[in-house]
Amino acid sequence: MINIEGLVRRFGAHTAVDQLTLTVAPGELYALLGPNGAGKSTTIACLLGFERPDEGRAVIDGIDVASDPDAARSRTAYIPEQVSLYEAFTGIENVAYFAELAGHPRSREELSALLSEAGLQADAHDRRTGTYSKGMRQKVGIAIAQAKQAQVLLLDEPTSGLDPASAHEFSTALRRLRDRGTAILMATHDLYRTMRDADRVGILVAGRLVEEHKTSDLAEHDLEAMYLRAVGAVEAA
């Protein structure tokens, strides 16, 4: 569903992404770990069509993103660290608007059900999202992904700054989407959530994928040690 093949993105003399190749299958959650500046956000920007690769390809559901970004984005939902919503709209109105844009209009009952399934309390559905906490906004993002029937979900540090209860609810919603067949790529620093939620993990350092494993083959302390070793080895080189 997601295929990245020999991806290179340069900014002047700096190579942000360096010959990156990875795949994410339908019904798989792939966690992309790496320090700040490793190239995680640039990789996601290439998958969204916001950055054009200098070499290689980013492919969504068989569609080359650089060649047809609109078609690729129609199959994709994106949840950044800070979800942007129309703050004068209510939660239901935001989901309704984005579902309409995607060509999947929903009834009020369906919209409310999607928000509830994402973990948003019923008494918040008709409140303006300008009053929402970060965790509440992330839940609206999940509901939007479901409403537009996205086959691919891209996330950039989605649990950063969330309290433990909100992070748990967000993880539950993510696993539900994965179990329904969504291909999920999550850029993160969160080792705990990676071990809890991801099927596979890749470690990106200086734009290069230096480790890739099934999380079922790792213990949490092994992942931490591997991450620190990988980052330290590249920084020392």
From TrEMBL:
<dbReference type="InterPro" id="IPR003593">
    <property type="entry name" value="AAA+_ATPase"/>
</dbReference>
<keyword id="KW-0547">Nucleotide-binding</keyword>
<keyword id="KW-0067">ATP-binding</keyword>
<dbReference type="InterPro" id="IPR051782">
    <property type="entry name" value="ABC_Transporter_VariousFunc"/>
</dbReference>
<dbReference type="Pfam" id="PF00005">
    <property type="entry name" value="ABC_tran"/>
</dbReference>
<protein>
    <submittedName>
        <fullName>ABC-type transport system ATPase component</fullName>
    </submittedName>
</protein>
<keyword id="KW-0813">Transport</keyword>
<dbReference type="InterPro" id="IPR027417">
    <property type="entry name" value="P-loop_NTPase"/>
</dbReference>
<dbReference type="GO" id="GO:0016887">
    <property type="term" value="F:ATP hydrolysis activity"/>
</dbReference>
<dbReference type="InterPro" id="IPR003439">
    <property type="entry name" value="ABC_transporter-like_ATP-bd"/>
</dbReference>
<dbReference type="GO" id="GO:0005524">
    <property type="term" value="F:ATP binding"/>
</dbReference>
<feature type="domain" description="ABC transporter">
    <location>
        <begin position="2"/>
        <end position="231"/>
    </location>
</feature>
